Amino acid sequence: MTGITLYDKLWNEHLVCVEPDGSALIYIDRQLVHEVTSPQAFEGLRLAGRKPWRISANLAVVNFLPIPALDGGHMVFLAAEAITGKPVNEDLQIKLTIGGMVALLCLMVLAFRNDIMFFLGAWM
Prior knowledge:
The protein is mainly α. The chain is built from four helices and four strands. The protein has helices at residues 6-14, 38-47, 71-84, 90-123; strands at residues 15-18, 24-26, 31-33, 58-60. The strands form two sheets. Strands 1-2 form a two-stranded antiparallel ribbon. A two-stranded parallel ribbon has the order 3-4. A hairpin with a 5-residue loop joins β1 (15-18) and β2. The longest helix is centred in the last third of the chain and has 34 residues, at 90-123. It is elongated, with a radius of gyration of 21 Å.
């Protein structure tokens, strides 16, 4: 039995078809949305007339949004401290962080619900 590389295993498992011009169409089940490379990737899909299959499976790097549970929220606390000269009340930070986490969980539940509805709609 001959060995096969990890790259070849991944390629073979994700290859959908090979186009007549030699280009390959592969299935990617996760997309990391990043400010540097994603615009080119999505533009390439648009030019080819293709759409991302499950947009809710994309992982966007949004940790700098000003939501207290994310890095951006901590930056807001630090900015408030720089402006006022004293730290934000710890109880307030805890309450806002918990509220931010609840908001993020609600967003995740909504995305999960949309995936389930899409899946059920595709099979019904």
